[in-house]
TrEMBL record:
Pfam family, one: SocA_Panacea
Name under which the protein is recorded: DUF4065 domain-containing protein
Residue ranges of every copy of the Antitoxin SocA-like Panacea domain listed in the record: 31-135
NCBIfam families xrefs: SocA_antitoxin (NF047745)
Superkingdom classification of source: Bacteria
Amino acid sequence: MTDGPYDPRAIANLMLEEADRSGISVTNLALQKLLYFAHAIFLVETKRPLVSGYFEAWRYGPVHPAAYSAFKMAGSSPIDFRATSQDVLTGERFALEVPDALSVRRHIARIMSSYGQLSPGRLVDISHAKGAPWHFIADKGRTSVALGLRIPDDVIVNRFKFHKISVGESTVAGEPDEDTPLT
């Protein structure tokens, strides 16, 4: 397999494998935040994107539309399946090849170890930190044109350092169970 950027659904599948190994259940809302943190940290550390495509600023934080679509049938329940791909000519579905690069697998294990145990509400709080990429794009969308509220990689690189929040007993966002685009 190539050395990236990878199909976001394949990285999500790898994250779900790691979650299974660790006994963690993951909802689509949580998976979107975990995928974002994995991509952002990889981007900041290596100066290369982890996943292809883009993230958008949705109500409860960054969402990768392709990954969201692949797992939306899980709703607010823990995901118990893997994303697949489909041959556009035959309609046949097939398994996505997960990255075999040891550095990527270690990165995903580290992300799941650091963030995987956090509740969806805590992940949302972190993703909404003032000045961080989601906040910057959502705020920009309120005052000017922000095409599809996409979060460009350069904004992630320049603003990821703002992902700092105070740790308290309860989450600011509560415990949301499903994400929706910002309107």
